[in-house]
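Quick one, probably user error.
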């Protein structure tokens, strides 16, 4: 059996490990268009911050391929031929596959802004190479303009703040992290970032660039030395165009199967069902990517118990010590807790927890995530206790025993 995995990040790693959970036989070929050992993309900001080096960024050990008896090729796949079950490399080779996984991730979206080409030091911020290029231009006297107040833009700001003369972040939305925070949560995180010296221009956009000056939609002009584009990402779906069903991302089922036989897809390039609301969407998140990849690998290898993924939107991130965790969707009734250093919103309806936003005291957020992913009926637990103080005491005795592996201490019985 010839297994081919296109992509060497979380989903690709998950697929290798999924295959090897089922069988030690069969050839596994992993193809990477980046000339690096597999690494954790969320850590690139810590590389610039000096909190991590390239060795600490590795997603798996140096011996990963040897340990799992797989071959890593640094190349790019340009075409897949489902009729002959072959794929073409940029180097011109045609190679066969029996089972194939597309884990091609996503690419930065570069908005068509007038005069953008006149900006010499402009960067995106998604890959290790992006971080290295940006790193080479940082200096204490330089002013940085970041377009995009989402996760990528703000992690970039955190990573470089101590190494530049100032940072201004622009976003068309009226609040930062608009895709994952509500107004109250966004205000709390924004104040924290402003206290560190980051300036924001919200409900604003760049109309045009005049070399190293950005002209905003309201007429204001901002001078800068370095530009970072962090507007968003687009799933890399081109390889399966006219081969498998594609919407915004490659459509996959809970087993990571595409609509084309023997071709699977996983990670940021895919679109799958969000179990928190039943909607099909792109969920470009590392935990989901790994789980999708693992499911693909197990299913590609014919695992007796076909692996499925219960995917939900999740984010766990920190900014200068402030921790933020979100999951699910924000519909239904709301339970709120708020203090000077902590913020909690739980969203629920129809006897289910739909989603949450937690800032500050995030240590037990995993209990809420499990309630969403499992679809736990709220009338089967002490939901009020869970809201105020998440812990196993809110569950029934039988559920506690199950979660504790069949063992339960007398003091919680």
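Nope, works fine. Designed sequence:
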């Amino acid at each position: 059996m010839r297994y081919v995995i296109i992509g060497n990040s979380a989903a690709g790693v998950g697929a290798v490990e999924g295959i090897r959970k089922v069988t030690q036989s069969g050839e596994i070929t992993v193809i990477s268009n980046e000339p690096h050992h597999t690494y954790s993309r969320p850590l690139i900001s810590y590389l610039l911050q000096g909190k991590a080096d390239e060795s600490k960024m590795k997603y798996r050990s140096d011996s990963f391929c040897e340990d799992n008896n797989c071959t890593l090729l640094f190349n790019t796949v340009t075409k897949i031929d489902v009729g002959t079950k072959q794929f073409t490399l940029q180097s011109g080779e045609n190679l066969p596959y029996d089972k194939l996984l597309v884990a091609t991730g996503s690419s930065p979206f570069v908005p068509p802004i007038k005069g953008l080409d006149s900006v010499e030091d402009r960067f995106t911020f998604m890959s290790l190479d992006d971080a290295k290029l940006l790193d080479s231009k940082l200096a204490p006297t330089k002013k940085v303009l970041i377009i995009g107040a989402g996760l990528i833009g703000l992690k970039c700001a955190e990573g470089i703040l101590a190494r530049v003369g100032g940072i201004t972040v622009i976003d068309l939305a009226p609040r930062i992290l608009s895709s994952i925070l509500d107004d109250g949560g966004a205000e709390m995180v924004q104040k924290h970032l402003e206290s560190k010296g980051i300036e924001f221009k919200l409900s604003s956009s760049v109309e045009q660039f005049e070399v190293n000056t950005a002209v905003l939609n309201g007429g204001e002009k901002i001078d800068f030395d370095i530009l970072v584009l962090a507007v968003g990402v687009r799933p890399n779906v081109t390889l399966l165009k006219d081969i498998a069903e594609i919407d915004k991302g490659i459509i996959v089922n809970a087993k990571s199967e595409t609509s084309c036989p023997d071709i699977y897809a996983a990670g940021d390039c895919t679109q799958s069902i969000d179990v928190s609301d039943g909607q099909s969407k792109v969920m470009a998140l590392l935990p989901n990517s790994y789980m999708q990849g693992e499911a693909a690998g197990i299913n590609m290898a014919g695992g007796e118990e076909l692996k499925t993924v219960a995917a939900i939107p999740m984010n766990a991130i920190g900014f200068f010590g402030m921790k933020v965790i979100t999951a699910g969707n924000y519909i239904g009734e709301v339970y709120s807790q708020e203090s000077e250093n902590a913020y909690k919103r739980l969203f629920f309806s129809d006897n289910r927890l739909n989603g949450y936003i937690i800032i500050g005291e995030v240590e037990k957020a995993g209990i809420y995530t499990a309630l969403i992913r499992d679809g736990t009926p709220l009338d089967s637990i002490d939901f009020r206790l869970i809201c105020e103080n998440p812990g196993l005491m809110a569950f029934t005795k039988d559920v506690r025993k199950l979660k504790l592996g069949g063992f339960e201490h007398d003091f919680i019985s």
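The two ends are 51 Å apart (CA to CA).
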